[in-house]
Amino acid sequence: MAGGSRVGGGRVVVLAGGLSHERDVSLRSGRRVAEALRGAGVAVEERDVDATLLAALMADPPACVVPMLHGETGEDGAIREVLELVGLPYVGAAPAACRVSFDKPVAKTIAARAGVRTPESVCLPHETFRELGAGAVMGSLVERLGLPLMVKPTRSGSALGCTVVHDAAELPSAMVNAFAYGSVALLEQFIEGEEVAVPVVDDGTGPRALPAVAIQPDGGVYDYTARYTAGSTEFVVPAPLSDEATAECARVALTVHEAFGLRDLSRSDLIVDAAGEVWFLEVNVAPGFTETSTVPLSVGAAGLDLGEVMSSLVRAAVAR
């Protein structure tokens, strides 16, 4: 544990690591958040998630926990449920909001009900895909959604298991790739346009959208490699959008944040098509903070200090 001021009378524990496919990304995010908090004068302890965690937290309760766990085990609300059981304040959305946000089909339904445009999609469990016969199912899928289309697991992050399908012959391998990360695949109409990420922060004074970050991967697809390999993607912030599209991106991100019952911090992933229409793809309740992540870029573009932003969210959690 590093020295520094104590928030609410105690240290802050940053949780990172875990056992998901995104363990390495989580460790990098946690390290950066911990460093930012220390830079703001906060006493920080970094901890992995293992069998000793809960006993340690209960034996010496921190003032607040900052979960920086990515993937299903970190973003499905389970860890936060345990933190609530033992009465520890934490930064981020409550368990129920995490569950609906992490399940992509459910999230798309909630967004649509809130009046947010989202690509047409179909969910297909592995068992149904196998039992009905791949050929017949895939033919109907292509006819319904058209090409290209996006295939991805319903409950995964960092673009793991995601494939853009340009030809029907590519669909079987794309489905296998998605099923490697979950038992249900989401097949979604592919929207051509500018991909942007819009963070929303709320330190207790009300949610506000930070500048949109345009994501321009070298290979055209923002996959796992493009996300976490330095130099593989160009990020432009503020995103090169019209004033109208910029305002609409902020409105959509705020609408999603509030409709899902999120708090403290979220990041909406959107597409702005050639007509300037904004499409919702998904929302992240534990966005990455690596050296190639969009939230720190947006924070910087807003003229804010990352450590001060995170410490303000910690104070809000403690007060809550």
TrEMBL record:
UniProt: Mg(2+) 2 binding residues: E282, N284
Cofactor: Mg(2+); Mn(2+)
Entries under PANTHER family matching the protein: D-ALANINE--D-ALANINE LIGASE (PTHR23132), D-ALANINE--D-ALANINE LIGASE B (PTHR23132:SF23)
Protein family: Belongs to the D-alanine--D-alanine ligase family.
Enzyme Commission number, as recorded: 6.3.2.4
Protein name (Swiss-Prot/TrEMBL): D-alanine--D-alanine ligase
Pfam families xref list: Dala_Dala_lig_C
Pathway: Cell wall biogenesis; peptidoglycan biosynthesis
Species per Swiss-Prot/TrEMBL record: Nocardioides donggukensis
ATP-binding recorded as keyword: yes
Residues the record marks as active site: E22, S158, S293
Catalytic activity: 2 D-alanine + ATP = D-alanyl-D-alanine + ADP + phosphate + H(+)
Domain spans labelled ATP-grasp: 108-315
Function of the molecule: Cell wall formation.
Keywords, sorted A to Z: ATP-binding, Cell shape, Cell wall biogenesis/degradation, Cytoplasm, Ligase, Magnesium, Manganese, Metal-binding, Nucleotide-binding, Peptidoglycan synthesis
Binding of Mg(2+) 1, residues: D269, E282
